[in-house]
Amino acid sequence: MKPSTAPLYPWQTAHWQQLQAYVLQQRIPQALLLTGRAGLGKRQLADQYAAALLCQTAEQTALACGECSSCQLLAAGTHPDYLRIAPEETGKAIGIDQIRQLNQKLALKPQFERYRVVVIEPADALNVAAANAFLKCLEEPTERTCFILLGQYASRLPATIRSRCQKLVFLSPAAEQSRRWLAEQGVSGDADMLLEMALGSPLLALDYAQTDKMALRQQLFQDWLKMAASHSHLAEIAERWQKFDQIELERLLSWLALWLADLLKLALAGPSARIGSRDLQASLQQLAAKLDLKGLYRYYDTVLTSRAKLTTTLNKQLLIEALLLDWWQLNNR
Predict the structure, then answer these.
(1) Which domains, from first to last, does the chain contain?
(2) What is the pLDDT of residues 7-36, one digit of tens each?
């Protein structure tokens, strides 16, 4: 996969200035960890930084020129000193064989005079064996090699890897900046609700506005209501949900967590509570009126824990069925 060199997003200015300083001062970290939730443009920033490291003229400007032979190879996706490590299948782990193959390539010198760049995304998908093998790459660095690790959940990486990385933590931009950017992209709907759904991530909010994700969300919410009402819907809903890949399932669990947070707000503050899912408030209010608060807190924790387990070898079908059954039991005590 070749990196993108599209313009950076307005909320990335401070991070980009820090990366430019690394290039201009010729103080390139051996490993850089970009972490934060999806939809904040981590890959975009990593691609710009990688291009600057590989460009033959970027030492003076910290910007890839786009014209030198190195930039042209990168644009064509054939640069020999640009390596990207990713799961072989969506939602799967990065295995030790991939890291062993990387080590073989790193045993050779970079072919150009600038840096060799290795991008690992998502880094939190490294399984235990792969993470241990990758640690050796960091402990025994090779000539002019820079690692760029991207991931949502830095805590899933071993502390021994995190401690060897310079870290850039991506936070959601200010709501006003996000609303302004969404308006510039032609989003005319309720930007605040979209941003609430996307947990403050503008790129996810834009995706929700431009695709059928809103219809999918509505369908999943109706499934959730049906499951609260009757155990008989368990097999039907579980069969539908288990067809989701990891990315879709993670989105589903994020929405469940948001709905549960809204239920807790409504249970504590009543109809005046400011919730993210305002279009679902009537249904959520009815649920909040009858649910046990302690049980609701416990189930909220269960959903968050389940989302963290998606990258493990836990059986997806069992996880979904357990979540649905717990939800039915919470509503029928």
Answers:
(1) 10-169 (3.40.50.300), 212-331 (1.20.272.10)
(2) 789 999 999 999 999 999 989 999 999 999
